[in-house]
């Protein structure tokens, strides 16, 4: 009898050895894709916790990026107010003097 459902691909398995064999055979991670929408009927406390953890991790990565940019001496004021690194600004000005339009995405 099927006792377990793989969160990654919804395959039914009966025991831990079957789960391990499934992962080896199909290269399935066994983890639910975190950005895939979940039907409201299937949304439970575990889904809520998973979504919350994803938001927390995203916030941590954002804060880490801010600290990294601050360490390079350039502030980060959002997409439209971001400042370029000094050497990148120098490169843009040199290109401008030569009549080259250089587009830098920050």
Automatic annotation (TrEMBL):
The record's section on Gene3D superfamilies has: 3.30.60.190
* Superkingdom, natural source: Eukaryota
What GO biological process terms are annotated to this protein in UniProt? box C/D snoRNP assembly; maturation of LSU-rRNA from tricistronic rRNA transcript (SSU-rRNA, 5.8S rRNA, LSU-rRNA); snoRNA localization
> What GO CC annotations are associated with the protein?
nucleus; pre-snoRNP complex
What is the protein name stated in its UniProt record? HIT-type domain-containing protein
Q: What organism does this protein naturally occur in?
A: Aegilops tauschii subsp. strangulata
